Amino acid sequence: MQIINARLRQKPELFTLHIENGHFTKIEKQDGTLADTSLNDDINADGNLVCAPFVEPHIHLDAALTAGEPEWNQSGTLFEGIERWSQRKPMLNEADIRKRALSTIELLVQNGVQAIRTHADTTDPTLIGVRTLCALRDELKDKIDLQVVAFPQDGMLSYPSGLKLMEEALEIGADVVGGIPHFEYTRELGEKSVKLIIELAKKYDRLVDVHCDEIDDPNSRFLEFLACEALFHDMGDKVTASHTTAMHSYDNAYCSKLFRLLKNSGINFISCPTESIHLQGRFDTYPKRRGVTRVKELREANINVCLGQDSIFDPWYSLGNGKLLRTLDFAMHICQMMGYKDYESALDMITDNSAKTMCLENYGIKIGNPANFILLEGFDDYSVLRKQGEVLLSVRHGEIIMQRQPAQVISKPWISTI
Ligand code: FE2
């Protein structure tokens, strides 16, 4: 298989990508545009951007597609979301979770995603979410990279047997240890939970991804504790802080000090801008905080930061369509990243940076890597972002898994005659 007339990120020329046995074997610079070849499985990219697949590093597949069941989150707060989810949890069963998770995965794949990190709630004595999503991960292992986070939604130490359930989830096979220190009853319990998360990650050799300081409270400072633990245990590249929305409200002098630790620790960040702009700032009158972590500043400090959707039609967020380009568009606006330099590498936040966060191996368009890629409408990061076009093609191990015809617009004469 060959992909001709392809643009690659940060390169102005056209390329031909050669694929054999599901791997990239040659990437050749072209001398101008090539005509269609006669080989059946060749693809003409037509000057569009061939990009590494999108990565969804933060979503809750166990809760997806449950908005309004049995009641809607009317206040729009994160805490009412947790209450509504508590009402939905007793209705969970394997078939229910499996059906909704598969529909959501399909939606994500249709929009160019080939790797997903999902959280699975462990504060449920049956652990049905963890069991179902781990089984689905194993079943889909040749089709998609799926990681499961053992996530204690109601607290690891504040929920009865929360710690025991967390350990059981890791025994079942969850890939990542999660946490929610800002939701534990006290600061002491929150700090203790972070220590336990790191201990469990070391004991079971797992990654870490903590819902960290997802609150507008400027005194919620578990991030420094998490980063410090990661630094002292030399495991920063395996540790992720999700949300960190309190950082939006931190005093600037404190933040300046904090960034030194964050940089030294090497931890990763995930921001979910659509979710945070919706859930945070709910206790403010006016002015209302945006409640999104400092994505621009993290990028400028060369700290790894990526973007996730968090929810699709669930008790916390009742919109969402699986399109990470939409999430990226929101982030660029909300975090005021609209200088030309911001645009040039914008796609990093839904591709390479997310792959680094998930510790994905053999990711990217390189000779020898599996031929996993997507085709995007546009010729560079900026044009793809501005156009907000559809993903035209998704190829995994050299096989087409999704193809879409570009929309046709038929212009009417009243414009062309002006
Ligand atoms: Fe989340």
Automatic annotation (TrEMBL):
Gene3D superfamilies: Metal-dependent hydrolases (3.20.20.140), Urease, subunit C, domain 1 (2.30.40.10). It comes from the Bacteria. It holds the Pfam family Amidohydro_3. InterPro entries: Amidohydro_3, Metal-dep_hydrolase_composite, Metal_Hydrolase, Metallo-hydrolase_Enzymes. Residues 43-401 form the Amidohydrolase domain. NCBIfam families: PRK09230.1. This is Cytosine deaminase. It comes from Marinomonas colpomeniae. The gene is codA.
